[in-house]
Amino acid sequence: MLATSIKDLAGLSYFRRRAMLNLSTRVVTRLGRPDAFYHAPSADFKRLSGSYTPARFSQFASDLRSAQLTVKGNEIPNNRLGPCAEDEFPPISAKTYKGLLEAGKAAFRNGEIGAVILAGGTASRLTKNKIFWEIEGGKTLLQLKLYATIGRAREGGIDIPLYIMTSPATRHDVVKMANELGYEEGIDFMVSDQSMLPVLTPGGEMVGFNERILFAPTGHGAVFPTMQNTGVLDWMAKRGVKYVVQSNIDNPLVALDSQDSNPFLAYVGYHANAEREITAQVSRKEPLFMGGIPLWYKPEEGKRRLAIIETNQIEPKYLEQFNSLLPYFNPLTLIYNLGFLRKFDAARLPVVVIEREDKDPNSGEVILKYVKLETMSGSITMAEPANFLPDTIPGVYREGMFTQLKGLDQLEAWKARLVSRFPDFFKA
């Protein structure tokens, strides 16, 4: 049963504290998936919302009520987008590889590389959070990701400052696992939660449940203001970092070490020698792979350029065409200049409207239709020109550096490759 008026629950103090948002609240008495949300008093808005102010969020709600903010509004006009061919993404060549690898190794030895792991999933679409996924011999995906990102470097005497963006659903376990591996918060890594906003009804109301407001993550685009606001970038800069490598928790094949068998430092070398602030890695796209896709994009001002466009930003009638034609997508692996990240205004990222349904797990009944607001980290290429590089190098490395681990059922298919890629880790 839904209570659509605040006076129905006038005695609950958490509704009094919601006044800073100046929004009405719809109360639900049950949820199909309570774990799909974060539950908190509305007074926690400031703590959870990151760079979103009450005024800005209230404006989003107002725009939703007046239909100025819609899912359809996510879509970029098709005359500003265009498909691109495989030959528009020239890979690192075997001829230039050695020099770029040496440049990357120099940055590695000089302590100029920092790393970011996106680990903020709240398991809203999964039965088990990815950080707990066991690969082999009790070793989890998070443990492997930490080893690939900073553990191998430490074995070679190099410290890589690491930032892990978590959520309230993952932070405790991330810190615990990192500590168990011998990494110390504040010295080896920093961690903080991605921002969250209250979910909204299609009519622009907040949603109340059990004397709390329902919150949801604002997408991995939150990594930029979160790093700025929590001192992560200043911490990395003091450690001498110039280049920041971002990758997702489900992609342990992005490894940071100076072994000749690992080509990733050649990408860092390429980025260090390039004139742009961002380098985006693209991986071979299979039909079921999910992620933003590189398209020719014409900003409202300026020349057209390649940019990562999310699928919900493409008109449906063109999305199928683009998906069938395009050879690549972005797996959230990007390299940034740290100085650029320190000054980047995250308000330049497009905010997209995501519609969801909470259903009874037994009957399938729709209990709640709700909206959440998100930004995506790949959308930074819509705001700033970027380099694009395939994750294979002809004549040098043809396997690619991406694991599409979106479901537990996919682990078995990737297990042998991960074990062969990191034998020392799995033998320990």
Automatic annotation (TrEMBL):
It comes from the Bacteria. Keywords: Nucleotidyltransferase, Transferase. The keyword Transferase applies. The keyword Protease does not apply. GO terms for molecular function: uridylyltransferase activity. Belongs to the UDPGP type 1 family. This is UDP-N-acetylglucosamine pyrophosphorylase. It comes from candidate division WOR-1 bacterium RIFCSPHIGHO2_01_FULL_53_15.
